[in-house]
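Technical appendix A lists one of the benchmark inputs used to test multi-chain prediction within the project. The record comprises three sequence entries:
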Amino acid sequence: MEEYLSQLNESQLQAVTYSEGPSLVIAGAGSGKTRVLTYKIAYLLHQGFPPQSILALTFTNKAAREMKERIASIVGEQQARRLWMGTFHSIFSRILRSEASYLGYPSAFTIYDSADSKSLLKSIMKEMQLDDKVYRIGTVQSRISNAKNSLITVKAYEQSKELIEADQHSKMPLIAEIYKRYQARCKQAGAMDFDDLLLQTNILFRDFPEVLEKYRRFFRYILVDEYQDTNFAQHLIVQRLSELHQRICVVGDDAQSIYSFRGANIDNILQFKNVYPGCKIFKLERNYRSTQSIVNAANSLIHKNKEQIHKTVYSENSVGEKIRVISSYSDYEEGYVVAGKIAEMRMAGTHYTYSDFAILYRTNAQSRILEEALRKRNIPYKIYGGLSFYQRKEIKDIISYFRVIVNPHDEEALKRIINYPTRGIGETTVNKLIAAASDNEVSLWTVLQDPAAYKLPVNSGTANKLNAFRELLESFMLKNDQLSVEELAAVVVKETGIVGSLFQDRSVEGISKQENLQELIKGISEFAELKLEEGAESVKLADFLSEVSLLTDQDNDKNENANKVTMMTVHAAKGLEFKNVIVVGLEEDLFPSLMAKDSLRAIEEERRLFYVAITRAEENCLLTYAKSRFRNGQSSICSPSRFLKDIDAEFLDIPSVASAEDTFQSKRAEYQSAALSSFRNQTKAEDVFSSPVTAAAQQRVSHLTKINDAASSGGNVSALNSNLQPGCRVRHERFGEGEILQIEGTDANQKATVLFDNFGQKQLLLKFAKLTLV
DNA sequence: TCGATCACGATTTTT
DNA sequence: TCGTGATCGA
């Protein structure tokens, strides 16, 4: 143990070895937070705490798994396995399952993901005949979610003047009613949504002191990672569990709080010392990850925020390169520049491999164009995020069968499969089923079991179809007891006819669906194998489902260490590090997001998000922005992000146009072919920039003017172009700047040969090409 | 009830 | 641009 402790610096050591009372560890970016947490757990084990008495809560499955592995390497697999370590959601769903009877839920309750709850909300709103343009589904969902995260139950919501008034003010007075029905339907379906996992845990601990008492005694030490991202529900669970013994250690960095949209409350960490009087505060301020330039640049940025715990993050690594800022004319060009930079940096005699690079963006939508650019340059990449494997249609459909087998009252799953594959049970029948079920306050499945008793108004043909469907499901349920999970899965896909219908489809998508299906079955048997290895006596379908619903894409990553460039949102990058980080799309209304515009708090969160992005970098950080970008199907003009001005200029490096030209000179041929294909997609809008980009110009918001669509003012175009001559420098919306080499032809057929800085030589018909003189 | 076609609308981040 | 939702005809 001593040997391990000697690897820690002074403040890390203090944080690790203090276990007498509550403690708060403020861990700056890259300060060895995970190391402190893992060593602290190892230390506690060494002190004699049995592993099962330690509760360690993380934010993502990935973080939990990695920490577990690191602890295992210190104290051994046997001990590490018995720790209670996982995400809030997974740990408390586990507890809820074993205590479900207290709350009137089945222990095999379903977990509704946000798509499920959205769909349920939609159907409730339809039944209430609410206009979905007034009651925007996303707004309704987040309203209810926020209420739950603040532990406001349906009753409390109805009684809250404030909330009711706010709803009336926003023309949605019936949110309380939606919430009420939603909750009732979830209960009826034996389902909890993500927020319920925390809310119901709180209800459990509030209403059943003996249960709380049991877990209080059970968990003798509690650790929480990423505490700045906890919401009120999470905070209160932790507080309740630690109230008596006060052995709690939370780790976090207020500068990295980026989840307030999900109810995370930065006050939890800011107020920690008031909630736990006598708590010790440790600050980890030495950054081991990044160069001084990066740390200093990030510091200068984050200091622009008002709300924060004071700390001085510093680095004793080398000074390193300044942060480079690169501008492009369009999002297309941004893609090529990024791809080019990666290729260049990899070739530059350095030791970099593709996996040393990460491209980070604000929104998933930005990934497409970057993906295309990397592909054209044959740069291998992997994209995180987007829709996960388990959210794909074909996978969700099959999982829905499993869900119904385990919990037939699961309304959302039942609705998905009742007519998949099509068996002649259409929307009308389903609506009748729903109506009958809610009139009698039972689940759809209950109605299905005895349609006559609930006066389901269907003709005999439909009744037969429903009956056949019910019998099919019942046969599966019977087999669930006899067969292993993977055997059952095979039976389901075969007997429902899913296999048959999927394998007829020879289209590209059809084949990919088949592959996904096989992947799923393989995943199930691997899961079963793993559980048996871990000593489980038998593996039930319910076991698989309970894990799957909390799994995300990043969790089933197979080729983790493949040599590929990583692409992900900034949110997804939290907690990770890369030698080289490229943050793209640094434009107003994108980063910071348009949504954040009118609130200081929101802007500060965006700034923290940017801080997170920069501090992922170990050696080099590159920031790019485009001056025009495709949004909503048309190109729009963008100005550079205000955040660029928030970084002290001394840490920034803005290359001149000329050096950019050198960079790409040798690669022109490739750019040419790339440019050719993007030429096909050329847009109509023409952007004109007032002045060449200089460092100074980049420091302020550039003044951009827009000229009318050239197609609708064709006459003007030739007039505009008549003074174009060889030798002129021109600018093109997509290809950026270049020099005219040659002009040939007359009038409508006039052609210009232009050598673009970043896209090589191109011939353009002046009739279409909207060129402007620089 | 189902499939195809068309129009429209919306776009932040995720356990 | 893309995907979803509504509408229509069979």
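Confidence is low (pLDDT under 50) at residues 657-720 of chain A. The domain at 111-189 of chain A is CATH 1.10.10 (Arc Repressor Mutant, subunit A). Comparable benchmark entries are summarised in Table A2.
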